[in-house]
Amino acid sequence: MEVPAPLGVAVRYVRYAWVSALTNLWRNRLMSLAAILSTAAMVAMLSGFLVLLHALHITIEALESRVNLIVYLRDDAAPGEVTALREKLLQNGNVVRVEYVSKEEALERLRRDMADRRDVLDAIPGNPLPASLEIWVRNPNALSGMAQQIRREPPVEDLDFNEPVVSRLLAITNLARGIGLLAIGGLVVVTLFVIMNTIRLAVYARREEIEIMKLVGATDWFVRWPFMFEGTLCGLAGATLAALAVSLAYGPAMQAFIGVLTFLPLRVDPWFLVKLNVGMLAIGAAVGAAGSYLAVRRFLNV
Amino acid sequence: MIVLRSVTKIYENGTRALDDVTLAVPRRDFVFLVGPNGAGKSTLLRLLIRAERPTSGCILVEGQDLALLDERDLPAFRRRIGVVFQDMKLFPQKTVYENVAFPLEVAHVGGREMRRAVMATLELVGLAAEARRTLGQLSGGQRQRVAIARAIVHEPDVLIADEPTANLPPDTAWEIVQLLATINRSGVTALIATHDRDVVDTMERRVVALHDGRIVRDERAGRYEGV
């Protein structure tokens, strides 16, 4: 027999695989529906989790962008000493930014913050506020060690950082991040498993068909592709359902959160929702394809 | 050419399906494989397409040592053999044409080439007029012809048939065997497992008799039962 052109073969085969995938989806529509719905449930859960993680991430970022450490300077400190300390701090790899706040600026800020209590401020003679250095660090975990060192510097009068609050918050957020990632990993595995088993039932019903294909000389991939297209379509359909549900719920849910957790810098982020949905569609398709791959595997040994 | 050398097959449950079987089938030969149920006929056929592997011994089909056949080359090897399965293994929801075209689909033979081969084969088995029917609309004998057509559409070197006349009325069975003989005359080695005493006795071809997994008789122009 003459050897057919490779491109023609590919086009023909892709058409064959799609047609059989769609035919089989329809023929086993109850099973397909089960696969789609279980994917939708899993992906929706995954999305919900990611929304929570995202809120957490925003909170952490906001916390991290705050001043981490304030060093109050002696009134009698020489400008040279202050400059030297600043240089020294900037050489520390953990320090991101150091800002000098003069006595006048400090008073100005206080005036601004307490605009409604001007009478109290007017009662204070002169300027009792010290000049300070405000320090932003990369890793707040190292703050207490740094504080110990800085305290020994000559121009330093005192320093201030909310160690207990910062470290506790960091502990909580690190833990939450870890748990979140674990949960996502777990959910992906569970989703894969559920889809795999649903598809395996469908495949089991057609094991004889697979056997015939193999016995008349079909390669494993010839058998596999239609099933993988099927799985991909189920995964995509399920993820689409989940994306619709999550998109509808996202706005109201975030508004409710923002109403309750007013102290957290949460916001509705449409761009995040878009990215989330695209990601979930990709995960749905990938999990569907992978589930089919695994489900067909054991029936290919003919 | 098919060669089996000291082939033994013991299944996991301990059943000894074939016991030290040695057999040579030259090219273009026509062989009936006879024997009672459980004698090992089906096992022997399954070994030839490597649906099973022997416990020990060596099998060569068309010069290919099946033990040395790479998993990757198995599909291409199977395309050189045509098999009529005992339960036919057809696709019940597909049409006659689609069933027969399937081995070509698998081998990526498409378009005009495929249509030509399928129609020529259907012509040969006498089903050209039924091409568009689904299997449910066919009689038992017609379905067996579809199975045979599918086994030969890709022009294999070897044709293996497992009980191709089972459950068919005598004249239909006779037609099927005549068809197999015609295919054999075109140069295909044919190995046919059967229970059909009348067919074997009338044809007077080579007969290999199996009993309890051993070859008990191998005769040119033999009969179903030994003298």
Q: Your description of this structure?
A:
- The complex is a heterodimer of chains A (302) and B (227).
- Chain A is an alpha+beta fold and 302 residues long.
- Chain A folds into 2 domains: 5-63 and 167-300, no CATH class; 67-161, Alpha-Beta Plaits (2-Layer Sandwich), CATH 3.30.70.
- Chain A is 72% helix and 8% strand.
- Chain A has helices at 6-27, 29-64, 79-91, 103-113, 118-123, 143-151, 163-205, 207-215, 220-260, 270-297; strands at residues 69-73, 95-101, 132-137, 156-160.
- A 4-stranded antiparallel sheet of chain A has the order 2-3-1-4.
- The mean pLDDT of chain A is 82.
- Chain B is of the alpha/beta class and 227 residues long.
- Chain B has a domain at 88-155.
- Chain B has 7 helices and 10 strands.
- In chain B, a hairpin with a 5-residue loop joins strand 1 and strand 2.
- The chains are: A alpha+beta (302), B alpha/beta (227).
- Chain A binds chain B through residues 1-2, 4, 8-9, 12-13, 16, 27, 208-209, 211-219, 222, 302, and chain B through 49, 51, 75-79, 83, 85, 89-91, 93, 102-103, 105-111, 113, 117, 150, 154-155.
Largest interface: A-B, 22 and 27 residues
Low-confidence stretches of chain A: none
| C-alpha-based Rg of chain A, rounded | 31 Å
Shape of chain B: globular
What is the average per-residue confidence, as pLDDT of chain B, rounded to a whole number?
Answer: 92
Spell out the helices and strands of chain A N to C: HHEHEHHEHEHHHH
Per DSSP, what share of the residues of chain B sits in E-state strands of 2 or more residues?
A: 25-35%
H-E string of chain B: EEEHEEHEHHHEHEHEE
For the biggest β-sheet of chain B, the strand order reads 6-7-8-3-9-10
Structural class of chain B: alpha/beta
Mean pLDDT of chain A: 82
- Work out the strand percent of chain A: 5-15%
Tell me the count of domains of chain A: 2
Major sheet details of chain A:
4 strands, antiparallel
Low-confidence stretches of chain B: none
- What is the straight-line distance between the termini of chain B? 28 Å
Considering DSSP H and I runs of 4 or more, what fraction of the residues of chain A is helical? over 70%
As laid out across the biggest beta sheet of chain A, the strand order is 2-3-1-4
**Number of distinct beta strands of chain B:** 10
Radius of gyration of chain B: 17 Å
Number of helices of chain B: 7
